[in-house]
Amino acid sequence: MKAHYFKLLAKNSRARGNSGFTLIEILIVVIIVVILAVIALLLINPTMQRKKLYDSQRKRDLGRLRGLYDDYFLYNLRYPTAQEVCYDDPIEVSAGVCQCNICGLEKDVGTFSPLLHVLYCDPEHPIQQYVYEYDCGGSEPLWYKIYAKLSLNSYLGPDGQYTCNFGVSNRDDSFLLPYPFTCEEEPSGGGGPTSTPGPTSPPPAPTSTSAPLPTTTPTPPVCPGDPTPKYCILSSICNICGTYAQCLQPDACDQPLTLYSNSSCTQICSLP
């Protein structure tokens, strides 16, 4: 009887051992889990998602500031000065053209801020800045430009000297050129503009501003010639891609390529 019992016990032990996982099976499961984890990280890409969120905020902030500045002009017949919207002292970068920085997180955000409760600020401030450029040739500014640097936009100008690559103005997009290189500062730098950009052409006479309208014609017009920058969609965000040659690079725009002549990507244009 005892011998029969021990035989059954040994048989059951062998059965339990045969029903477990082998080392090869465990390795296959681990490899599959690792592959799935890598695929998930590539699809989610938290760094890319954060850059998309930052760029969306920058475009939203500048769009809202443009609306507020244009409303301000309707009541005051001028645009704000540095003392009204900037937290630092303005720098005259060329004759009649001044620059300063906008950020509602700073202690002194200007006298314009009570109208907004708080002025907008770059999400990566103080490493990156919103640059306000305006007409300081007289006591009443008649034009303005607001610049930012988009993380997912590699356009740095024809000579690679820009850090600002997105902007809004009370004029058309061509008035934004040349982009300044004061949107990005060294981590140990101060709050105001640290460099003096090249000569800026005198501003044209004030003209009435109209909102851009989507192109509805079946055949879009030809895009403006170089060096005027062109725009395209990259990772679901409207970005400046630069010259024709730069826009045709495979990683510059989403494919199939569609070019636009304005910074909001509403006016489609075609290659010449």
TrEMBL record:
Residues 185-220 are annotated as: Disordered. PROSITE patterns: PROKAR_NTER_METHYL. SUPFAM superfamilies: Pili subunits (SSF54523). It comes from the Bacteria. Keywords: Membrane, Transmembrane, Transmembrane helix. The chain crosses the membrane at residues 20-44. The keyword Transmembrane helix applies. It holds the Pfam family N_methyl. The keyword Membrane applies. Gene3D superfamilies: Glycoprotein, Type 4 Pilin (3.30.700.10). InterPro entries: N_methyl_site (IPR012902), Pilin-like (IPR045584). This is Type II secretion system protein GspG C-terminal domain-containing protein. It comes from Candidatus Roizmanbacteria bacterium RIFCSPHIGHO2_02_FULL_37_24.
